[in-house]
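When time allows, look over one protein, given below as sequence and C-alpha cells. The question is which stretches look regular and which look disordered:
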Amino acid sequence: MRSYEMMFILKPDLSEEVVTETNDRLQTIIAEFGGEFTNQADGWGKKRLAYSIQDYLEGIYFLWFFKGTADTVQELDRVIKLSDKFLRHMIIRQDEK
C-alpha cells in the first residue's frame, strides 16, 4: 500500500449533519478497499477561498492522510466527482522516504 494525502473543500452552506455523512462515506470507501488512516485531521473549518468557486467565497476544508491502493484512489475520485457537495479535491501520492 502507498501513502496518500487527500485535501477536499466542501460547500460552506452544508449542514453539520451532511458534512458528517460525507466524511463517513469517504472513510467507508477507504476501509472497504483495504485502506487505513495514518493521520486524520477533523478539518480546518470554514475558510475564505483565494478565488470564487461556483459563486462561493468560503469552503469547509479537510486534509486527510491514508494508506491505500490505486483502486482506493480511483473510487474516492469517482465518488467525489459525482457528488455536488464538493467544490474541489486533490489526492496526491506521497513519496517514499
Summary: The radius of gyration is 13 Å. The chain has a mean pLDDT of 92.
